[in-house]
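Pilot study result, target chain (93 residues):
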Amino acid sequence: MQQGNLVYQNLFSRDGDLGGLEYWALQVDTGAITLANLALALGAGAQGSDVTILANKVAASTAFTNALDTSAEAVGYGGDAPNAVAKVWLHGI
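Predicted structure:
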């Protein structure tokens, strides 16, 4: 499940293990969860170092968002190019 692996990469900066990918693909395929809710479900089920990685990403994202405290700053970080930079930055956390 390519989409599931992308979620693993975005949340935890790693590929999903085969068993996990198969489990989550089945959950989506059977309608137990929606594809839209996959990231929430994966985050809620995080264990070990994944918990730390996800918490660090949330803290960094929150600090970054809170620092955009003027309209000019918010506008300056809108669009595809700034979002691509932010994704690279978060992947390294």
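One observation from the pilot: The mean pLDDT is 91. A full batch analysis is planned for the follow-on phase.
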